[in-house]
Amino acid sequence: MIKSLLIANRGEIACRIIRTARSLGIRTIAVYSDADAKALHVRQADEAVHIGPSPARESYLVGEKIIAAAKATGAEAIHPGYGFLSENAEFAQAVLDAGLVWVGPKPASIEAMGLKDAAKALMQAAGVPVTPGYMGENQDPAFLAEQAAEIGYPVLIKAVAGGGGKGMRLVESAADFTDALASCQREAAASFGNAHVLIEKYIQRPRHIEVQVFGDSHGNVVHLFERDCSLQRRHQKVIEEAPAPGMDEATRAELCAAAVRAAKAVDYIGAGTIEFIADASEGLRADRIWFMEMNTRLQVEHPVTEEITGVDLVEWQLRVASGEPLPLKQDELSINGWAMEARLYAEDPAKGFLPAIGPLEHLRFGEHLRIDTGVEEGGAVSPFYDPMIAKLIAHGTSRAAAIETLLTGVDETEVWPVRTNAGFLGLLLEHPDFQCGDVDTGLIGRDLDSLVHPPKPEADELAEAAALLAASPGSGPWSAALGFRANAAPRAEARLADDSGNLHIVALEEVEADEPANEVLTFSAGFARRFTLERVGGGAHHSAHDGDILSPMPGKVIAVEVSQGQAVTKGQKLLTLEAMKMEHTLVAPFDGVVAELAATPGAQVQVEALLARIEAAE
Fold first, then answer.
1. Partner of 531 at 20 to 30 A CA spacing, among 29, 325, 380, 578?
2. Is 343 a catalytic residue?
């Protein structure tokens, strides 16, 4: 068994690997950037090495620094986690050339599956069905447009070196193809250093189903059943579950057998995932499920597989990398119950899911859940990396039981002042189609409006907020701020404004509070609200700066779609910001005129920098 392990990653996956390594008696070494100097994974490891400035390209993506850190600390092996260098064949080979153990597949296997076009050709040769599309070398825009027309719209443009939804665009018609291709290629080049794309038929009622596979150096390959990852937004997974709802045993057997064939075709060693797309218009059928790609690493959603199989996949990775055979044979693996994972992100669904950054002054997770996280109360969400706060994982004897447990956990989740998608997750879990297992990748998009806006606060939540505020200094029952009169009846009204600008009138019988407060936070069903007092005669808050378009994070302006003085309508695209390797579109908050335009293409901007100002139309 490996005795010492350097983890070439950060955040929750680094903490996850450390947890298993410690249980096996393995010494762990963390690496960290400037931004992560006080991070949880740094403190949990036995040793930690600083590898550079905050941007990933200057630290976590510099293979030479990571290998040097491994040698300096006497590490025997390197585990890449997921993301960063985990699927970089050159880095894997450099680790091996340095005399270190690589906890992952052979570099040749990574290379074979790293480019989507080559991988699909390889899968076809192995008898694994693939979706129709164009995977050739010709990248001329006019030629690609012809191929898209021949395949038939809608089509999906995908970066051949892509992943995680980056470098991917859905195109509904020929009129949109050219702009979508250019945007996709820009994002692909920025994220992966490779602008090459492929085009494939877009399945109208798609489900994203993947199979966990595992191989060892003794020629054994097994599957650990399937996961359903159909709940996605912009191709980013939101909630994953195992097994897949509606999967019968015959279809499962064919699907998992195809996944094993795919792994064997590249002589696969270690943990990997074969991703399939299913046309769910007639339920799950083996003849309507096609190979999409292989992820040659551990997946973000691996915990749901662990929960239903009782297997520690990180332990298996370390044992296989140490030369041991797989701990279990195929007939020794079985499904036990149901598991679900929800990704808790620092982002604001009501503002287009813009990533949020800042300190985590208050952080609480629900009970009865497995929590995989890399942050803690008192820490912060950095602008330099993925804004995931935690993975909330539930297991139950049935799908309904897993949903109930996860819903309760979401309801008990409290994060402040950073905005999160917790409330969005709760509404999604309660969605009637999800509840009955009728899922596909378009579910969120179809009902987005009903999923992103907080419901009105319940009466008891308002009453509690009013009582606490009324007890704050200078706010007795005679205070004008509460709308009370000195000789009023015992029952009075409090006028509360939340931080979304909504006004609530609350009837009060009496005021009791343990401690005074000038503002009150409440948490309900995953939604965080901050209440303040509204003076009598006041309406909903409408700031003079409501029309200010501020940069939600540090980034680069890559496109400006309007000019100063131009009339715009609510929802109209104003400009595009590139940040966290993703493109973010900023739109007009209401009908009006561009009174000020401070953004220019190519400009680097800081968080909350004024980019434009919209004045309401009279």
1. 380
2. no
